[in-house]
Amino acid sequence: MSVITYRQALHDALRSEMLRDENVFLIGEEIGLFEGSYKITAGMLAEFGPKRVRDTPIAEEGFTGAAIGAAMLGLRPVVEIMTINFSLLALDQIVNHAAKIYGMFGGQAKVPMVIRTPGGGGQQLGATHSQNIELYYAFVPGMKVVAPSNPADAKALMLAAIRDDDPVLVLENLALYNTKGEVYDEDVPAEIGKAKITREGSDITVVAYSRMAAVALQVAEQLAESDGIDVEVVDLRSLRPLDRATIIASVQKTNCAVVLEDDWLTYGIGAEIAATISDGAFDWLDAPVRRVAMAEVPLPYAKPLETAALPSADDAITAIRQTLDAVARRR
Amino acid sequence: MIDILMPRLSDTMEEGAISTWHKHPGDPVAAGDILVEIETDKAVMEYEAYESGTLVEILVPEGENAAIGTPIARLNDRSGDENVSLPQVAPPALAATAAKPKHRAATPLVRKLARERGIDLSSVTGTGPGGRIVRADLDALESVPTPAPLANEPVETGSPAPAAAGVTALPMQDGRETTTVPFDPVRQAIATRLTKSATTIPTFTVTASADLEGLLALRVQLNTALRDAGRKVTVNDLMVRAVALALRERPGVNASYSPEGRGQTLLHGRVNIGIAVASPAGLIVPVIRDADRMSVTAISAQTRALADKAANRTLNTVDMADGTFTISNLGMYGVEHFTAIINPPQGAILAVGAATPEPTLSGETLEVRRRMRYTLTADHRIIDGALAAQFLAALTDLLEHPLRIVA
Fold first, then answer.
1. Is the distance from CB of B159 to CB of B120 less than 8 angstroms?
2. Which residue from B minimizes the CA distance to A285?
3. pTM for this structure?
C-alpha cells in the first residue's frame, strides 16, 4: 500500500495496463506532447512512443469512432475525452455505435474500449465545461459506467475497465484529482457492478458516487461527532450495472435514505436510486427518500453563485438531519 | 342503469368483503370482464360482469363488507333511464377518492409492523411531518409503562403525567402484552358457524379404537407397489375411504338435520367427505366427493390437490360445497384422542388420533401393537347412540381388515 493521489492512481493503472498488454493504447487530445490537460498521461509518450500514445485533432467524434473501429478489430483503446462536456460531440459514436455493435450484430464484434473523462463543476469553468452528464451514458444498455470516489477505486476500476470486453466510461472528477488515499501497489482490478459500503452505520443510508461519495464520508464522520448520528455510506462505484441489492439491503437495515448526486435533480441518478429503494425496500421505509443535487440552472461562473448552486456537505447534513427528524430518531 | 348486487358465492355466505375493484368509475365494462374480487367466508373469488356498459359508481369501497343482495356498484348499460348529466363524466380519480376510507398517513414500515403486531393505527398519534405515523411512534407505544389497571385508584395530581409521546389511547393496558388480531372473513365464518354449532346442536361423543398393524402393513405394501408410479398413500387416505365405506353401511350417519316442518332428517345418497385442513387462512374443509366410489390412490391425489389449493387460498366454493360428513385428523401431531365440533348442517364428525404403540395381550403373551382412537361427535336430533356405535363398529372392522378398504 502507498498513499498516492487519485491522479497518480489513474496514471499507474494506465501505465500498468500498457505494460501488461500491447493491445492497449491511448488516444485523445493533447495526451502526448502536452501530457494531458490534467497530466494523467504524464510520461506516456516518452515511454511508449507515438504509435501507442496518439495525439489527435480536436475532433471527438472522429477519434472516438476510430477507437471503436480499433476495438472491434482487437485493440483495447483508452480514449481520453478532456472533460465529459466534450463527449457530447461523440455522443452518436458512443450511444449508437460503441454501445450497440455487440448486440446488433449478434456478438460478431466486441467493443473493448474505455472512455476516461472527468466531470464536475466548482472550477469556475462556466456552464458548458462544468457538467455532470454521466447519466446520458448510464442510461444506455450496452454501456458500462463506473465512477470512482477515491484513489484505490480509481486504480481498481480503471484496471477493470480496460480488461472489460464492453465499452466502459470511467467517470473521473476534477475535484478529486488531488485527493489522496491508500492504494494497493499490486494490480487488483475491481468487480464492475458492485457497490461498496464505505462506512457502516445504523441510523440512515447515504447513497452517493464519485465526488459526492467522498463528501458523504466526510459528512458521516462530522455527524457522528456532532450529533451522534451513525450514517451508513453506500458508494455506488458503478452506475451501470447498478448494484441494487446492496442499496436495498442497507435501507432495509436503516429504514431511511438520502441520495447525494452532483447532477441535476430532475430525472437524475438519484431518481433511479429512489425508485430502486421504493421497489426493493418499500415495507422498510420510515421516511421518504430525500435527494441532494445541483440547483437546476446552467452552472454560473461567478464563484459565490457557483458554490451556491453545487450540492455541498452542508446540504447533505441538512437533508440527513431533516430525514432523521421526520422519523423522530435524532438524538 | 343497473345496480350490481353483492352475489351469493357460497352456500354459507352471508356477506362478502370487497377485496379489489378491477374496474373504476368511468371504465368501460364488457360482459365477462372481471369487475371485482370478493372475499367470502371461504375464498377470494372473482366476479364477472353479466352486462356491458360503463361503471358509473362504486358503492362499497375496497375493504368494506356488504350483505348479499346489497348494491355494490352501478353500471350504465345505456338502457336510457339515466340522467342526462351522468356521474361518469366526473374525473374517475375524484370519484375513486371519494369512495376510499379516510387516509391515515403512516410510513410503509409502520404499516408492515402494525400488521405484524396487530396494532390498530387509528389509536396511534403520528409525530412525523403532517402527523405521519413513524416507527418511533410504535416503539413509544410499546415502551409506555403499563398503567395500573384499576380505575378507582387515586390519581396523582401533583405533577402532570409525562405526555406519552404519540399515544392517544392505550389499547394494551392489561399487562398481558396483548396484540389484537382482527378477524378476517374466514376466521369470522369459523367463529360464527362453530358457535352456532356448539350452542344449538345437542351432541354426544363415542370413542372406539382399532388395531392398526394390518392397515399400516398394507400401507407399506401399497407404497412399495406404487413407488415406481411416484405415488404414495397416507393413513389419512385409507381412513377417508374406510369412513366412506362405513357410511355406506350405516347411511343414517350420512345425514343432516333440517328444521323444516316438525324437523327432518336429510339422508344423503352421495358420500362426500370433508377433510379439515389447517390453511394459512384458518380451518377450511375441502370436500372429496363420492369417496366411497374412489380408489385410495385417487383419494390421495385429490386430497393433495385440495390441500395445495388451500395453502394457496385458491379453493373455490365448489371445492368446499356439498359435504355430508367431516374427518378431522390430528394424528400427524401425535394427538392420542380428541373431540371435534360438528360442521353444520352435517350430522356428525370424526376426530382421528395417532396410531400409538400400546402393550396388548395376545392370548397369553404381551405384545406391543399400534392402535388408533377415533371419536364420533354426532347430532343427537338425528343420530342415536346405538347408530353411532354401529357406525364405529363398522369402521373398526374395516380398519382391522384393511383389504376391505382397498377391495
1. no
2. B109
3. 0.54
Grid cell digits, residue B307 = 390441500
Confidence of residue B234 (pLDDT cuts 50, 70, 90): very high
At A14, list the grid cell.
494506465
Return mean pLDDT, chain A: 96
d(CA B37, CA B316): 13
Q: Which three cell numbers stand for residue B238?
A: 385409507
Q: A287 and B136: CB-CB below 8 Å?
A: no
Sequence-distant (≥ 6) Cβ neighbours of residue A228 within 8 angstroms? A331
Q: What angle do CA A52, A55, A56 make, to 5 degrees?
A: 125
How many interchain CB pairs under 8 A, A with B? 37
Which residues have CB under 8 Å from B394's CB, separation 6+? B245, B246, B249, B250
What are the chain B neighbours of A328 within 8 Å (beta carbons)?
A: 127-128, 134, 136-137
* SS3 per residue for B293-304: HCCHHHHHHHHH
pLDDT beyond 50 at B156: no
Inter-residue contact B231 to B300 (CB < 8 Å): yes
State the ipTM, two decimals.
0.72
Query: What is the mean pLDDT of the segment spanning A306-323?
Result: 96
pLDDT (tens digit per residue) in B353-376:
999 999 988 888 999 999 999 999
Q: Is A49 left (phi over 0), alpha (psi -120 to 50) or beta?
A: left
